[in-house]
Design brief:
heterodimer; A: about 130 residues; alpha+beta; four-stranded mixed sheet; B: about 600 residues; alpha/beta; Glutaredoxin; Rossmann fold; Ubiquitin-like (UB roll); 5 domains; five-stranded mixed sheet; four-stranded parallel sheet; 23 helices; about 40% helix
Chain lengths: ~130, ~600
């Protein structure tokens, strides 16, 4: 293996930056995909994969974390994601598909603007499934 | 993050990791979930440990059988698996996130900053956590004098035991005339129950190598040795991988980063003799000679390995160096107490709920370490004493539990910092027996070169054995104290110089226990076999025969559903009946 120069050392460090954020759990924003049985059935898995890929593409690895959690208690609204931006109240989105989820990642998690048309309104009928 | 420290590995964490990878593949989660083997997480009591990131969920005591459920419920379902979460002693509520667990919350990791976060066998991951940045700074932007100055400013003191200021040691060696200076990393962690250095090498070996490159630059050495005990196969392997990787990247070898600084590291495996942790004995051992100390001066910094000026630093000391250079000496000096700066890693073992590795700022009290981080004493028993500094340290009693831990405070109460071993003892420990145990270890490990240590420890051990076996006299007690002071003063090296500590400190704080053994022929803690008897309380005995079946000497007599009795003449006082009884009917007196 060739010797590593100071510049290459920096490059290795940069390459691992997103990885590091992930491990330290520090990020400006978190996108949580709800993957309870309901979310999975509605396509939560594919949304997670697309979000992970989109995050890579946007080079947003440093500032946005994509992670999963369970049922959000509004099963009729699945697939759902919650966007948590540091210092702001979390916003819950529902009835998504892969494209709209990516749009929310770009506009809200990265861009900082809430995508109001997909924001979940708490429904009276739906209850939480543990 | 699957812990692959020695503790977790011995609890089959490698199988857990393998199963986890298989299950993840089976569910097609390969792209989203990465399983990383890390070094020791530190919370060894709860191993095997898995930490799920970025959520930071801490799963403990995970077995192969738990894995499929974990993958389905947590990775697919997003719900933490309740049964694998940590529950603080005496509480019903589980704590899911690692950062909320008190054991971790009250720690301040500097040396252990990467533990459980990176794969110790990947140099790139270390670089990703700012690794080798301090080396760039130290080699390209600073002069060796500036490195020494920065370390002096930090107030870093040797973490191996004696606590000599590291920067001063380096300066001393730097100014010593002579070429071909050596840097030795002392990884001969000999204290029973101590595993700080092993864990650092297992979890973050590159931090030690980076520290060595900087130390070598500071003192002007181009040859380095890591002296590691052969009993640490995993640490040895990860160290060798790290040396290979650093060499491939050009961080070791000739002209590192074009700075003109050459530095090579060689690993020397030690045979595991306790005395070889003593620096002059260690040097003899590296040279291939029997590990026996020689008088100082000349100090190794003047005349060390092969007669050349040599600096010997402990693993933990060196591992602190990169952070000090990166963040600055002043930053480091802000932690700790006025005489002892920074943090210290302790291995907390014995009668404590949360056994493991603990890194806290100097000046943290014993109470915080034992009760907050350590979670207190198991089984509702009472805390009695803590042995600080390994076998040649001292016992600190309950009355001093609010002592802030630093080099000076520990010395004041008759203990030592040593390398950072803390052994917690509860009311079931007999202090005379404890002193006898440690002296027995030191007697075996004395190299025999100087008379006070060789003969003195032997005689002290003899007296302690007499006392624990009920033959002790008050005259012997006086002799014991006299011998202890003589051995302390007259021994050649620190092994003999500190060997009487267990005796002196237990005499200082637990003299009444010695007297009880001698005058009353009683062991108050109920440990010393010659001085105890077992009896069955007839009002509690239900005649279940559990004790009679457990007794190997057939000393328990009694028929089913009738009161049992112990025949004291046949009884070998093994305690089997005591453990077997479910009704607390068997009593020690």
């Amino acid at each position: 293996m060739p010797r590593v120069s100071v510049e290459e050392l920096k490059a290795i460090r940069e390459r691992f930056r997103g990885f590091r954020r992930l491990r330290e759990g520090k990020a400006r924003a978190r996108v949580v995909v709800h993957m309870g049985a309901c979310g999975l059935k509605a396509g939560g898995r594919n949304i997670l994969s697309r979000l992970l890929a989109a995050r890579e593409q946007e080079r947003a690895g440093e500032e946005v974390l994509v992670t999963v959690s369970g049922c959000a208690g509004q099963c009729d609204q699945e697939p759902m994601i919650t966007v948590e931006v540091e210092g702001e109240d979390p916003v819950r989105y529902g009835r998504l598909n892969e494209e709209t989820a990516v749009r929310i990642l770009e506009e809200h998690a990265i861009g900082g603007r809430v995508v109001s048309e997909f924001v979940c309104v708490p429904s009276r009928t739906s209850g939480g499934v543990p | 993050m699957a812990c692959a420290g020695t503790g977790c590995l011995s609890n089959r964490s490698a199988d857990v990791k393998k199963t986890l990878q298989e299950e993840i593949a089976r569910h097609g989660l390969d792209d989203e979930v990465l399983v990383v083997s890390t070094g020791c997480n530190g919370f060894c009591e709860q191993g095997p440990i898995l930490v799920a990131l970025p959520d930071g969920i801490f799963y403990q005591k995970v077995t192969v059988k738990d894995v499929p459920g974990l993958v389905e419920k947590y990775l697919l379902g997003g719900e933490p698996v309740e049964s694998l979460l940590y529950r603080p002693p005496g509480q019903k509520e589980a704590v899911a996130r690692m950062k909320d667990i008190q054991f971790f919350r009250d720690q301040r990791p500097i040396v252990l900053r990467n533990k459980g976060l990176i794969d110790p066998e990947s140099i790139d991951e270390y670089i990703g956590m700012d690794g080798y940045q301090a080396m760039v700074k130290g080699l390209l932007e600073m002069t060796p004098e500036q490195i020494v100055e920065e370390v002096k400013k930090s107030g870093l003191r040797g973490r191996g035991g004696a606590g000599f200021p590291t920067g001063v040691k380096w300066e001393f060696c730097r100014k010593s005339p002579g070429n071909g200076k050596f840097l030795i990393c002392n990884a001969d962690e000999g204290d029973p129950g101590a595993f700080m250095d092993r864990s650092i090498l297992e979890a973050d070996p590159h931090s030690v190598l980076e520290g060595m490159v900087l130390a070598a630059r500071a003192i002007g050495a181009s040859e380095g040795v890591v002296y590691v005990r052969d009993e640490y196969p995993l640490a040895l392997r990860r160290l060798q991988i790290a040396i290979q990787q650093a060499g491939d990247y050009g961080f070791l070898g000739e002209d590192i980063l074009g700075s003109g600084h050459d530095f090579r590291i060689r690993v020397v495996r030690g045979g595991g003799a306790f005395v070889c942790g003593e620096e002059t004995a260690l040097i003899r051992s590296v040279e291939g000679r029997p590990g026996r100390p020689v008088p100082r001066p000349p100090f190794p910094a003047q005349k060390g390995l092969w007669g050349r000026p040599t600096v010997i630093n402990n693993v933990e000391t060196l591992s602190n160096v990169p952070t000090i250079l990166r963040e600055g000496g002043e930053w480091y000096a802000r932690m700790g107490t006025s005489s002892s700066r920074g943090t210290k890693v302790f291995s907390l073992v014995g009668k404590v709920n949360n056994t493991g590795l603990v890194e806290v700022p100097m000046g943290t009290t014993l109470r915080q370490i034992i009760f907050d981080i350590g979670g207190g004493i198991p089984g509702g028993k009472r805390f009695k004493a803590i042995q600080s500094g390994g076998p040649s340290g001292g016992c600190i009693p309950e009355s001093l539990v609010d002592l802030p831990v630093d080099y000076e405070e520990l010395t004041k109460v008759g203990a030592i910092m040593g390398s950072g071993g803390l052994i917690v003892m509860d009311e079931t420990s007999c202090m005379v027996d404890v002193a006898r145990f440690f002296l027995g270890f030191l007697m075996d490990e004395s190299c025999g070169k100087c008379t006070p240590c060789r003969e003195g420890i032997l005689r002290m051990h003899e007296i302690l054995t007499d006392i624990t076996e009920g033959r002790g006299t008050m005259e012997q007690l006086a002799l014991l104290e006299e011998l202890a002071l003589a051995v302390k003063d007259a021994s050649l090296c620190a092994l003999g110089g500190t060997a009487p500590n267990p005796v002196l400190s237990t005499l200082r704080y637990f003299r009444d226990e010695y007297v009880a053994h001698i005058r009353d022929r009683k062991c108050p803690a109920g440990v010393c076999r010659s001085l105890i008897h077992y009896r069955i309380l007839s009002e509690r005995c239900t005649g279940c025969t559990a004790c009679a079946r457990a007794c190997p000497a057939e000393a328990v007599k009694g028929k089913k559903k009738e009161k049992h009795e112990i025949n004291a003449e046949v009884c070998i006082r093994c305690g089997a009946c005591h453990e077997a009884c479910n009704f607390e009917a068997v009593q020690v007196y």
